Amino acid sequence: MSRIGIFICWCGENIARNVDVERAAAEVADLPGVVCSVAYKYMCSDPGQSLMRQKIVSERLTGVVVASCSPHMHLRTFRKAAAMAGLNPYLVEMANIREHCSWVHHDRQQATTKAVELIRMSVAKVRANAALQPISIPITRRALVIGGGVAGIQAALDIADSGREVVLVEREPSIGGKMAGLSETFPTLDCSQCILTPRMVDVGQHPNIRLYTYSEVEGVEGYVGNFKVTVRKKARYVDMDACTGCGQCWNACPSKKNLSEFDYQMGNRTAIYVPFPQAVPARPVIDRDACLHFLKGKCGICAKKCAANAVKFDDQDEVITEEVGAIVVATGFKLYSIDRDQASSKLAGYGEYGYGQYPDVVDALQFERIVSASGPTGGEIRRPSDGQQPKSVVFISCVGSRDNAKGISYCSKICCMYTAKHTMLYKHKVHDGQAHVFYMDIRSGGKNYDEFVRRAIEQDGAHYHRGRVSKITQENGKLIVRGVDTLVGEPLTIEADLVVLASAMQPAGGATELAQKLNVGYDEFGFLSESHPKLRPVETNAAGVFVCGACQGPKDIPESVAQASAAAGKVLVMFSNEQLSREPEVARINETNCAACFACVRACPYNAIERAEVRDRKGQLVKRTARVNPGLCMGCGTCVAICPSKSADLEGFTEQQVYAMVESLV
Amino acid sequence: MDIGYYPGCALHGSSNDYGSSVRACLNALGARLCELDDWICCGATAAHSLNHMLALALPSRNLAIAERQGYEELLAPCPMCSMELLKARCALTASSDLREKVSEIVELEVQGKTRVLNLIQILQKIGLDAIKQRAVRTLKEFRPACYYGCLLTRPADTVQFDDCEQPSSMETILCALGAEPVQWNYKTECCGAGMTMADGPTTLELSHKILSNAVAHGANCMVVACPMCHVNLDMKQADIDREYDCRHDLAVYYLSDLVGLALGLDEKSLGIDRHFVVKR
Lengths: 666, 280
Description:
The structure holds two protein chains of two kinds. Chain A is an alpha/beta fold. Chain A folds into five domains: 4-127, Rossmann fold (3-Layer(aba) Sandwich); 135-234 and 317-332 and 508-581, FAD/NAD(P)-binding domain (3-Layer(bba) Sandwich); 236-316, Alpha-Beta Plaits; 336-506, FAD/NAD(P)-binding domain, CATH 3.50.50; 587-650, 2-Layer Sandwich (Alpha-Beta Plaits). In chain A, strand 13 and strand 14 form a beta hairpin. Chain B folds into two domains: 2-119, Up-down Bundle (Glutathione S-transferase Yfyf (Class Pi), Chain A, domain 2), CATH 1.20.1050; 135-274, 3-Layer(aba) Sandwich (Rossmann fold), CATH 3.40.50.11810.
């Protein structure tokens, strides 16, 4: 026989204003199985909870209904309180009489009637509740970090420093990401490589980090705590262990005129190459499409020069399986391609800026290389077309960003700051040069950020024009930039030697495909979705998968690093237990009744149901059945709805309970 | 090939040289232009600055006539006409309510099914190979600056033709016929258009910039596909020369003129003799 207690919350005025809580408490007191019904001003407060605990003990309650706010808000609170009083926490249910009732109705009479009905439904449900136990699943306490930019590096180091093993996968030949190619960083102007490369070296030498560069994650199986990840190590044609990174091979390589990816096509590299001198690992890779050995079957000079005999032309891709318990995604960003060639047909380019047509119209990352001491011009600011020092440079912000007509509504967040930085770096190197900036708004929120922009304007004399550029043409070697200064209210034409476009940040190529493999959501732009924008910023809806850095949304270096450490922290919280505890409200298949049609297997959005066999003691096949993996099941109930033989049911939300709730109303 | 033909006011009036040119050129390519019965004004700039529904109804009536006469495609060589027709077509296909309302206003059932093409699109449809096959002479002495003006490629979403900012479709056709189009900067700038009536000096300045840039980049003639552009660049060229004390001496051809010349047509039948700037 049930002994149910009902606890009705006033929520101060929130509920009590529109619901007569005392009347409700009186009306539900007579429901079958109810032994006590009380109302209290704040059920979630300490005295409220202790009232509930006392009643559980004194009335020997077998079930509790709390009529208050949304279960999202306080279900955990009340279940914990019940557990403290010795009641199985899964015997506590909530009736939402705030969001679903008092907040949305004005007629006090009707709202009170509705509150009573909501409580009656919950009583019906709790009467059929069963005591459940949290599910324990073992975890492999190793982490996978995907992406070796600054975010991935930070996450990997934090996890590894705490003593856990990390597998770091990077698809480029070296870790370092976009940051390794930057010149100096705002708002302190410290050298990007100088602050990043020590971290890269730490990663390369860390005993707890297994580094796979020039590798990609191919498949992910399993579930939180127990992922099985396949990684494809692309053929590098260089034996990583034998190679000493001496450089004889790339100094001797005759194929020298290949556009450097690291310099964004503004410099050249050899066919066997390290992308940049501080690369980690400092081991070269052979570009098959440029290597004379592969193209013509001749050459092989690198192999002859190699004292360590490390060049292996017969190298093959290798597929490796790693077992990990948690995954951190840090795949970063790419720049919006300004030309007409867009990844999505929805996104139009900016033909009017002549990017790709005029060599002296460059994007922001290219300008970083032009300014960088390790760049193609050795740090001297020279324009790509003729190597002349530009005396007038126009910077255009919001290229692609905040432009619905181009398909991107968001602000890329970092461009205002790096454009200010670009004008400063330019002025510091070309004292008689003039920087012009066309901007929509200056967004410089952040510690010391606005001061930095003011410095660019006031000390380094950048001319800021609030307005857009309508067209760039070329006359006599000059770029004619025509725009408008909306503060002056007049059209403006500037003859520039170089134009730098601050183009939008987009998620790196392949991010959405990876997200699909990981069952992680992403938005219309391809940025991965966090579980909650405020309170769960690095978790995803796929348990055990975390995000950090620019793959989740545009952000600068400090934010990426902070988020990476946060993701590492979440991984370590998970790893602090040997077992993982999960809520037991998951689906269960009645294997006796299951007709093995496997409709549920196909319908399950989490791939949580598998085909299983029931065998007798002699090993004879008795029957086939579907079986839920409680580690993967998210309790969505899709299988329950689809099962034709009614063999699937959801713990804590059984069909019997739902029918009881409906019956209580009619 | 029978093609529905909507000449619009200009090709019957002030720009009848363009009308002759389009007819002669397309006839020589085997396309028969069937002028719509009882067509009316497209509304041009006047209608949409007065009344939105009027600006939709006027071109819609022409679309209705084209539908009634069974044309799947309609040639409107004037970019203002083709843009107005396309704007109406987009609006009609998007809303059944509007289709009903407009059908009532124009007293003809209209669906907005007829595809509207500009002159360049008709030539593309005939095909470069077919044009080249019929060509009897090369255009190699022509170094045209191809001028698209503001309307041929805009609004990009409505007309969905060529690259809005860096178009190249006229160059492709002319290159195939041996001409050597120049690379220049003012392909899609405004010539001043109808402002020529209200504010002459501004139009002269804009057109002067266009002509100067073409000359500076080595053009020996200009090619347009818009009657209004032709007025400002050709008819007004003497005024421009006087105002800016210069001598552009730049013949301005319609695209169909040069294609017609390549096909062996004479200047008279193409209406070139009615241009103001005569090639010396």
